[in-house]
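Lecture 7 notes: from sequence to structure.
We start with the chain below.
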Amino acid sequence: MTFEIRQAKKEEMKHYRRMMAEAFLPPDVEDPDIELPAAFTLCAFENGKMATSYVSLPFTMQYNGREQKVAGISGISTTAEYRRRGYLRKITEKHFGQLKEEGKRPIAILWAAHAAIYQRYGYATVSNVNSYNVEPRYLQFPLGQPLNGECRVSGRDEFELLNKIYYQSIKEKTGYLHRSEITWKIGPLAPITKGVLFKILVYEEAGIPLGYVIYTVGKHPIQEPFQPHMQVQIRDLVWLTPSALQVRTVFWQFVPSDDPLPYLLLEPRMLNQRPYDGLMGRIVDVEKGLTGRGYDDEAKLTFEIVDDFCPWNQGTWCLETAKEGSHIKSTTESPDLVMPVSTLAMLAFGHISATRAAAIGRLDVKNDKSLADWDRVMKTIVNPHCPDEF
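Predicted C-alpha cells for the same chain:
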C-alpha cells in the first residue's frame, strides 16, 4: 500500500467534487460555476486514490478591530472505505506545521458538522448563532425608531456598494470575514433555483446607504393545510443605524448571538429563536495569533498553554497588551492561568470570559487577581460572529 499527503492535481478535482456531493448532498441553490483551485487542497491518497479531502481557504478576518489572516478549513470528507485510519489527523498535523512554518495564518477556523471531531485537534467553539422563524404579523416594534429613509430595490450589479456597507458594519467586530467577489457570488449573491424569487433592498436616508437585506422567497419546506405556503429567507442583513434594523422579514438562519431584535419586538417569543454552536477556531501559532488581535486596554498576562498537537505552543507566555499593539514572549515566570489551547481560542475571540472559563473548569487559576485583567482585555464590543459558511 502507498500513502501520501499532498495537494490534489487539477485532473483530480473532479473526484474531489464527487466526494463533496456524496458527503454534503447537492446544495439548494444553483452552482455558481466557480472552480476551487487545486492549490487550496491538502488531501490523503491511498494507492493513488483520494481517500480524505481537505481545503484551506485564504481568508482575512476581523479580530476585535484588526485584520487577521486566517485559514478557513473546509471540504473535509473521507470516503467510507478509508475511514478510521487517522488520515484527517495526519493531514491536520501536516497543515498546522505548514501554517507555523509559513507564519502568515496563525489561526484556523471552520464550520463543523460534528464539533467533537475537531476538538481532538485543539479547536473550540468560538461563537454561537441563532435562527429566527417568525410570521410577519409578529414583527411589531413598541418603541420603534423614526424611519427617516426608504428602501429601494438593488441588484447583483451593486456588489461594490453592498461590500462597502458590509465592511463599514464589521470594522470593530470579531469573526467576520472580508468578502471577495467570489465570496459574495457563492454566498449572499449565489444563484437561485427555479421557482425562487431573489431580492436585494438597500435602506437609505438622504441618499446615504445605511443598510441592506438580501432575501429569497420560495415554497415553505413544510406544507400544512390552511397555512401560508411561502417562506421569506434572509441571506444577509446589515444595518448601520437603528432605523435600518427595523426592515425585517421572516426566516433568518445565521443570526448573531447578541442580535437586538428579541429586545425590540412586542412578542419576542414568536421569533421561535433557536440557538446552536457557530464558528470553531484554533490558534495554531500562539505568538502570532495573539499579537494580531486588537486590544482596548493595557495589561500584562502570564499564562501556560497545554498543546500536545502543536508542541511549539506548549509552555509559559507573557503577553503585554495596549491599544497601539501587543508583545508576547516565552517566559520562566510562574503563570497566573493554565489552560489548553482550545480555551485560549475562546478567550481570544471574546466568546467567553476568563472568569466564566474558570468557573466551568476550562482553565486552572494560579492567581485569582489575574482574572479581572483577562476579562477586561479580552472583552469584545459585540459577540463574535461569522455570517458566512465556507
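Points to note: The chain has three domains: 3-128, 130-277, 285-378. The first strand starts at residue 3 and ends at 6.
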